[in-house]
Amino acid sequence: MTRLTIVTGLSGSGKSVALHTLEDEGFFCIDNLPSFLLTEFIDKLLASGSELYSKLAIGVDMRSERASADNLLKLLKELRARQDAEVEVLFLDTDRTRLVTRFSETRRKHPLSSQDLPLISAIDEEARLLEPVKDDAELVIDTSALNLHELRNLIRTYILGKTQVGLALTFQSFGFKHGTPASTDFMFDVRCLPNPHWEPDLRRFTGREKPIIKFLQEQPDVEDMFTEIRNYLQRWLPLFEAENRAYLTVSVGCTGGRHRSVYLVDRLADHFAQERNNVSRRHREL
With contact defined as beta carbons under 8 Å apart, do 245 and 167 qualify? Predict the structure, then answer.
């Protein structure tokens, strides 16, 4: 059965990077295909019977969908009903402020911008048009805080999650003062724990360094928090796997995202890596 990945999302959010990454993983990739050509194009490729098309990734160009995303949603429903392809939609999202910065730095024109529609309005309009597609996607990745290397690695993680036994489990730390992650399955708030930030001799270190690790290891509440999060995940992860989930993200947040959440994410990732093959971690604020 052919694996078909539809790549879409906001302009400037990293769709080209995603397609290049998938191409490196052996996918046959096509970019900027108008949605009304999807079905005919896929029919012709699959009818060829070529092994070259056993893994397809198609970047859908939404510039022809200014009125609504209804046509694309209808097409996706039809594709998912096919017996000859396993279909997934990858949607790339990005913070509006970050998108404005990216377009300003690259001096590229937004696909929907015009004399009557300035950049920020074009970004908002595209986000409005694509909201139903985002809600329908199997996977949403927020690329706001990701560099090129991190985005490629994250996409590879999810690809492996679809091809290896067991789900791909990602742990990420973050700081609430920088905003919550846009894409996560579980979110744990650990701001109630003792904060090394208020210890003058510890503030400059991160949760990956020995002084912070020692401080947090000595706090009973920190150990209790780790134990309860670990036990919760051990209890419920098998049920998610039973539902054929390919990937799952666990986010742990403290105030600044540099001490408590980092320490706990490293401990959780280390623990689950002992019993699972596809475990990764990411520290958003480091």
Answer: yes
